[in-house]
Amino acid sequence: MKSLIKGSMRGLAVLPFAALGALSASAQEISEVSAYVDNSYLFLIGGLIVMFMAAGFCMLEAGLVRKKNAAMQSMKNVALFSVAGIMVWLVGYNMAYPSETILGGWLGIPTFFWSPVEDLATGYAASSDWFFQMVFVATAASIVSGTVAERVKLWPFLIFTVFLTAFIYPVVASWEWGGGALDAQFGFSDFAGSTLVHSTGGWAALVGAIIIGPRIGKFVNGQVHPMPGSNIPLAALGTFILWFGWFGFNGASQLAAGSFDDINAVSKIFANTNMAACGGVIAAMILTAILYKGKVDATMCFNGAIGGLVSITAEPLAPTMGASILIGAVGGILVVLTVPLLDKLKIDDVVGAIPAHLVCGIWGTIIVAASYGNAIMIPAADADGAIGVSYMGQLIGVIATGIFVSAASAIVWFALKATVGVRPSEEDEIAGMDKAEVGLEAYPEFS
User: Fold this and answer.
1) N or C: which end of the chain has fewer CB within 10 A?
2) Domain boundaries, given as residue ranges, for the chain
3) Alpha helices in 177-320 (DSSP H)
4) pLDDT in tens, 193-220
């Protein structure tokens, strides 16, 4: 091999300048193709890892529901992923990345049936990007699934998922990632989706939990009745899968890996993402030990990890590793404090998705401004006309997302409630959704 290299170098030494110029152009083209391949691989591998998060959500939810609902919860997660894929192809992707917007950039003009247009100039294979974006949409739907578990019928839930994945989520995503109003007018920054993905799912879940109501027996005579999950080890497995999946979620959101700077950025994102999860776990453990007389709540620990991960998702590149731990730790604390608050408000969130995804999504989005040394209080343009990240710009993004997602979700939930109905009968809910909706049980030997 060494002799071949030396021979090639001798050949280059005697080539005319014109030929050397041609080789230089050829090398440049090869470099472009190499970056194209590397970037596409980042999307594909990142997308595969994020797709595995669907299994994480499934295992976490199946473990945290009662055994009479575990089969139903498992099937819902497989079904919602399938619905998301079809809706993103049908209209969702083109809604999130519109070729034309109206209403000042707040709404993209939808076109149907996405199809790839491959072009070396884009820097990546079109289908690789589509796949990566599609699995993000499924994540938002999974958040809703866990919150409203054990008391929603299958088909109404899937109908809601259609609207969430085809319209609600894509509209919010378009506001920044599609170059819409939040990006253009307020400098809003959400690197991988603390608000655009997680808070979107969290707002939809919160509205659903309020409209559908709590499970039978959860709140009686002013008392909160705990309903422990059926399989804590399975929930722990789901947590680890989600933790693993987040490296694809955040890392591949760099959107490029074909240069020295980009691959270093991906590496730093991996490290910061991991540290935020660690901070969330330890903070949740310490706080539950303080609040519960030395007892460490395992489910709070699991959601502390998720809360830490959600918190760092809005900006996993700019902070130091130490700052990432602190950002994640605050997320873990918020999870522990929000769970009893929801109980006081009689909002039944079966898996704790609202604290982990909505509350921590808001926190992670606001704190982005602190990750930039020149962060300002209000949106302002620099000399080049670019609007910098500001606390007010981030807050506007949070509020706009909350208002739109809550209103749109409420319309869909109320419409379903008034037509096909969303809850099973009292008899079916008490018997369990496995028997009522699925026709089989997850643990028949324990019946």
Assistant:
1) N
2) 33-101+115-446
3) 181-186, 200-212, 232-251, 260-291, 298-313
4) 999 999 999 999 999 999 999 999 999 9
